[in-house]
Amino acid sequence: MDSSWWSWPWPLMGNDATEIEPEDLTPPHPYYPVGVAIPAYAPNEAPVPVLLASLAGMLGFALLGASAVALKMNPRLTKSNLALFCWFVMNGCLHCFFEGYFVLNHATVASSQDVAAQLWKEYALSDSRYLTSDFFMLSVESITVFIWGPLCFANAIAIVRGSPVRHALRIVVCMAHLYGVALYYSTSLCGTYFTGRSHSRPEFQYFWIYYVGFNLPWAIVPALLLYDSIRTITKAMRALDKVDVALDAHRHRQGNTGETGEPKKTK
User: What share of the chain is helix, strand, coil (3-state, %, to 5)?
Assistant: First the structure.
């Protein structure tokens, strides 16, 4: 048989054959679950230390300025009350401005290179719902921005003024934080349990530090503040009850004295 027949450039064979390239299996983004749609995603341009330093710097500047104003308004403000004041100011800034950015720009966070957007994209490695305009996240964050954020600032002002309503405001905000953290953890973990699809990357940094660690203070601190406020109000009510009992006893004695000491009328 003529060997030239084998060297003929048949289709898909020989030197001039068309090569079939395998499909590019590289994920378009690093978020979980694998395959989640995040349109127009653009990787962060700034490194993580720079982003964290930017956030810490902005919060530090806000807390230093607010503390200076608070001490000027109330020079007798104790260190413990100043610490509480800073906690609520920090919460107010995060809720109203950082989370407010997410609520207003959730559709473009994935493609933006703003500092706040890059911070959200970094945190979203622990919860991709922040890049998919998830309805639950939008609902919870909107309530946080427009209700809990202003109430945090109201708490801070009440502490500086020594207002009697400071414990009532504190209880409301602490309950909101505890309820919000419980919902946040439970919805994500229940979704993972029932569907087997996690919104967080499995690495230690993203799950335990970002997802668990960054949110845990809003479970621990509000619980301690809630306990302290309840104990303070209970103590005050107990003292008020004792005062009421003492006043009732005093009125009763005064009434008896008036009856026995009243002169008899003569005809």
Answer: 70, 0, 30
What local confidence, expressed as pLDDT, does residue 185 receive? 94
Q: What is the 3-state secondary structure (H, E, C) of 129-156?
A: HHHCCCHHHHHHHHHHHHHHHHHHHHHH
Closest to 84 (Cα-Cα) out of 9, 10, 173: 173
* Lowest mean per-residue pLDDT among 120-129, 176-185, 186-195: 186-195
For 189-243, write each residue's pLDDT tens digit.
898 888 888 999 999 999 999 999 999 999 999 999 999 999 999 999 999 888 8
Which CA distances in Å does 255 have to 33, 121, 245? 77, 73, 15
**Long-range CB contact pairs, 59-68, < 8 A, 24+:** 59/90, 59/93, 59/94, 62/89, 62/90, 62/93, 63/89, 63/90, 66/156
Does the predicted model carry a pTM greater than 0.85?
A: no
Q: Cα–Cα distance between 259 and 185 in angstroms, integer?
A: 67
Flag whether pLDDT at 24 surpasses 60: no
DSSP per-residue codes, 14-69: STTPPP-PPP----SSS-SSTT---TT----SS-HHHHHHHHHHHHHHHHHHHHHH
- Please confirm whether the linkage preceding 33 is cis (ω < 30° from 0): yes
Question: What letter does residue 94 receive in the DSSP assignment?
Answer: I
8 vs 112 pLDDT, higher one: 112
Q: Which of 168, 187, 176 has its CA nearest to residue 232?
A: 168
